[in-house]
Structure formats: structure tokens, C-alpha cells
Amino acid sequence: MSSPDIVIIGAGMGGATIANALAPSGADILILDKGAQLPDRPENRDARAIFQQGFFRPKESWYDSKGNPFNPGNYYCNGGNSKFYGAVLLRYRAEDFDGVSHTDGHAPAWPFHYGELAPFYDEAETLYQVRGKAGEDPTEPPRSGDFAFPPVPDERAIADVRERLRKVGLKPFSLPLGIDIDTWLSHGKTPWDAFPDARTGKMDAETCALLPALIHANVRLQNNAEVKRLILGEDGRHIEAVEYLQDGETRRVTPKLVVLSAGAVRSAVILLASSPEGLANRSGMVGRHFMNHNLSAMIGIDPRFNNDSVYQKTFAINDFYLSDGKGGPPLGNVQLLGRISGPILKSDLKQVPEFILNAVARKTIDFLIMTEDLPDPASRVRLDGEKIVLEWRRSNMTAHEGLKTAMREKLKQAGFPIVLTHLFDRKTPSHQCGTIRLGANPATAPLDPFGRAYDHPNLFVADASTLVTSAAVNPSLTVAALSLRTARHIRETELHA
């Protein structure tokens, strides 16, 4: 049985980032990942394999509150869900940290303000080589300078749509993206959103954080190692061992420090499986406050429009982020989807011939409508024996419907007379977060503001489960920034480096 200084459970955005930040300390670090490295294979760029056949979806079922099984669509590989993400690396708005009132409820304040996290956002943007342009987004929070790389360029058709939207009064801005577009396109003329990346241009957790961490001799990675539970020592406070399953064999490792980074659902499951009451659960809040953005695809159709773009996903709109545009409560974020094609549409429209869907897709512009899911203790992850039960309660749908209405009106004004929408369901992991949240009070939150478990001083959590609110932007950069902040705290308090 090995006894490293630190065990990091999971190699997604949180685990890989914190491993990267702790690697130079010289501490003996072991990373246990449920997955393995994603191979470079033809299916990575095959829309039919990805969207119609579900080639990469894990062969597992979770259950809803009524006991109905569903395939969750979370990915187990080095880099986690970031291998498939749209590479959008947006900061939360400053207002998101201070509490936001919505028509249907309130998003609470964080235990610190935006300014506390701003330097770590800077660091995360550098680590993930974010492409963007400061100053275009009217809701942008304060930042120390511009991005190190210019934004990914609009394709001709997308530049046309951006200009159309400007003319109807909107302020589209270049999405901050983690994508080396030339490298990506050299491996295939496809979008990157939802297409897995085998180190071919996407700035994901494996490419930017994990692989550089593994260059250090003091960092080791064990793949196909599924952590099942944490084991307490005799004092009932310190984590003594991590138990995991690998190659059909149950193994244990006894670290000095544990960093749990298995994702919002899996991290909560590991804590709940580790004792009858759940570890780090004095507050009773482990697994609760599950959030999952309300997302809809919105497709604008103009018979005169010819969308010949390859990747499309280069701008967003925050005109309705801080208010509804008329002085009312906030609605959310709008951003381009990755380019929609016939094979992608056929995954939902199975009876329609693909050549017809391709003809329709050439006349569309495709957006993602994103609104905040509010934290609710009744929205939760729990265990029923070994079954993972996800009792997600949608919230804030008034804002979601309001954003769809506002954007539909603008698209029609911009010359897209037909506008269709499709609400994503629980089978699409839409930025899951919030199940082991940070807080200033151990009676209401499992973790202190630095991600340390109040009940277990040698246990930290660094992934999307720690998020207090979901805001209405992609969470990846915030997860990375929080992980960098937690890493600094570990170096200062545990490693004295």
C-alpha cells in the first residue's frame, strides 16, 4: 500500500488544474482517474458516431426520482468532460458573486467577492491559453489586461449574422475560447463543440494541465482506477485511506492529503458511499443544491441565408444577462452552438432523411439559450444501494422562457423569420454543479471558502461540486480558477511552499 503526500481523485478540469498547480511543490502526488487517455480514432470527428450512435457515451444508468433509468452522458477519460466541451472559458460576472434576484427566486451570495478570484481567473486564462478580446462585452467584470491570444475569427456567414444582430441593437462579443483553430482544422473540418479531442487543438484539462503536470517526476497517474470510498482514521476526522477498484481488484492508498475532483455527481456519491451519514456531511448538505443549467437550442432559419461555416461558435450575447433589457430581472446568456449539420439533427429527427436535414441546416444559425438554475436543497444526488439517483428540480424557468422570447424577437428582426427551440433534458450533462458547496458556515455548507471540508482537515474538494451558484455562463474557467486558489491555500497551509 503506497502512502503519497497527496491523492487527487479525478483528472477533469478541477483535478488536472490542481495537479498542475501543486506539481512544482515537489510533493509526492498520485492521481486516480476512473478513465484513461482518449485515443485518436476516426470516431472523434464522426458526427454520426457521436450524435446518432452515442459511441462515446458511458455504458451506465443513473435513475430519476421515480426510479426510471437514463444514460447520463458524463465522460470518463483523462480531462473528463472538458475533452468534449465547447471550449468556452467565460468568467462569472462580478454580480454573480454578490447574490442575484430572479423572478422565480434568489441566487445567494458567495463567501467572497469577485475580486478575490480575479487573479486566479487571470492565471487560469493563461494556463488554458484563452483566445478573446477584452472590452467587447458590456457585462464583463474587471480584469487586469487583455487576453494573451486574439479571438477565434468569425467565418464569413457568422460575421454576417454578428452584423445583423448589431443592427437590431444587440452587442455580440467574441467568445473567450480555448481552441487553437488552425491545429483543430488541420485534423478535420468539423466543429469542436461536443467533438472529443485527442490532443488535436482543444485547450482542455488534459492538454493544458494534466500532461504538463505529469512531466514532473513527483506526479503519477493511475488510469482505470474508480474510487469507491474514503476511509476515516480512528480519530473520526482525518481521511486515512482511499479505496478504489482497478483491474477487478480492490486497492487502498494512504495519503496525507486527499483532493476530491470526481465531478459534481461522482464526488458527492463518493462521500455519501463512505459512511452511513456521508463524509463531510455535518450540515446534511452533501449531494444537495444540485444545479444544471437550463439550456435550449434555438435555431433561426432564413431561406435566403447560406451558412457555409465549419465551426460557427465564435460569439455570444449578454445584453439580457444583468436584466431583461427593459429594467426587469436578469435572464441569461446566449451563445452560438457548434455548427449544426444533418447528421446532428437526425439524432432527434430520426424519420427525416439526412439530405433534407442537411439542406435545412445550410439555412440556419444555431444558438444556445442558457439561464441560471437556482440552488435548492431538494434538488439532489443520493444513493439507493449502489444506484445513483439524480433528483433534479428545474428552477428559474420564467427567466428561461423570457430569454427565449427576447432572443426570438431579435432573430426575427435580424431576418430569420422561422425560429425553433428545443429544451435539453437530464441526459445532457449541462454544467452540473453545486453538490458540495463552499460556505462560511459549517452548519449550511460542507466546505470552507478554500474548499477544505469542515469535518475533515485533510480533505479538499476541487471541481464543479463546490460552486455556490451556477450563474448563467459556462463554469469551466471558474472551476479552474477555484482549483488554483485551493492549490495556493494547500501550498501555504499544508506544504509550506
Please characterize this protein's 3D structure.
With 497 residues, this protein is α+β, with helices and mostly antiparallel strands. The protein has a domain of 342 residues: 3-Layer(bba) Sandwich (FAD/NAD(P)-binding domain). The chain has eleven helices and 20 strands. It has a six-stranded antiparallel sheet with strand order 7-14-15-16-13-19, with helices on one face. Strands 8-2-1-12-20 form a five-stranded parallel sheet, covered by helices on one side. A hairpin with a 2-residue loop joins strand 17 and strand 18. Helix 1 runs parallel beside helix 6. It is globular, with a radius of gyration of 22 Å. InterPro entries: FAD/NAD-bd_sf, GMC_OxRdtase_N, GMC_OxRtase_C, P2Ox-like. It comes from Labrys miyagiensis. Keywords: FAD, Flavoprotein, Oxidoreductase. Pfam families: GMC_oxred_C, GMC_oxred_N, NAD_binding_8. This is Dehydrogenase.
